[in-house]
Amino acid sequence: MSSALEAYIENITIVKGLSKKTIEAYKSDLSDFEEFLQKDAIKSDLDDILKYLEKYSNRNTINRKLSAINSFFNFCIKEDFIDNSPSLKQLSTPKTLPILLEFDDIINSIKNIEKKSWIDYRDYAFILFLYATGARVSEAIDAKRDDIVGEWLKIRNAKGDKQRMVPIAYTALEAVKEYLDKSVYNQEYLWLNYKGARMSRITAFKITKKYLNVSPHVLRHSFATSLVLGGADLRVVQELLGHSSILTTQIYTHIQQKNLEQTVRRFHPLSGKYF
Predict the structure, then answer these.
(1) Which residue in the list 159, 177, 209, 265 is annotated as catalytic?
(2) Could you say which of 29, 102, 168, 218 would form a disulfide bridge with 214 (CB–CB 3.0 to 4.6 Å)?
(3) Mean of all residue pLDDT scores within the chain
């Protein structure tokens, strides 16, 4: 690893305080870049970058590599290691609609859960809870019993250290109350494992995978989609999801447009072949 690259890694670790995962990813990509060049990354030019990126065909992979390279050169300019940056703009990637489940799919998958133990009540309530609140899995497993205030959920550890209040649908709230009544533990956290400790992300994933064959995050998308298709204002959906920017929420407008198109094609009299 070159001295410039070492300085960069030190900067994003100590000064910027990026996550360990991000640091490792940047370090791996930039070390791979230098290995390909067989020289220090700081000595590369635009042609070197293009030749390096030719190895990859996946746009997401190329953009990840470019993100690391551009970040490195921005640092080098800021520190006066170089005068000009040979950085490139990232490639545009087509927007893909999130995987989601219809309401009937969710209900039909969980209505036959045999509630033989408090764990079964927990699984049933947890799935309804995710679908009813749109909470991230991290927010769900961090929820405490006293975070349910009346018919509202207080999400304390929201992304970006923000807090928000989300109403809980009646059916989900009743399921949660029933689960708490049946639970053999009386702990601080709302969702527990069979030992009475706070539920882990892995356990949360296993529950939704077992009954719905999806990750917990799909229920968050399903929550948002149900609201948008029901006519909810996008700003309201943004607030409920805890998105800091409306741009993140706007992916659901594609679902809304698709639904409108399907509705017109199905019901409008001119959709048939009459001429």
Answers:
(1) 159
(2) 218
(3) 86
Euclidean distance between CA atoms 206 and 213, whole angstroms:
9
**102 contacts: CB under 8 Å, gap ≥ 6:** 222
72 C-beta neighbours (distance < 10 Å), count: 26
- pLDDT of 275 reads 45
pLDDT for 119: 97
Looking at residue 200, the DSSP 8-state letter turns out to be P
How many other CB atoms are there within 10 angstroms of residue 148's CB atom?
Answer: 18
| Active site (annotated) includes residue 198 | no
Task: Name the catalytic one among 27, 122, 136, 221.
Answer: 136
**Mean pLDDT in residue range 182-194:** 95
The domains found in the chain, sorted by start residue, are 3-78 (1.10.150), 103-263 (1.10.443.10)
201 is catalytic: no
Active site residue 265: no
Q: pTM of the entire structure? A: 0.62
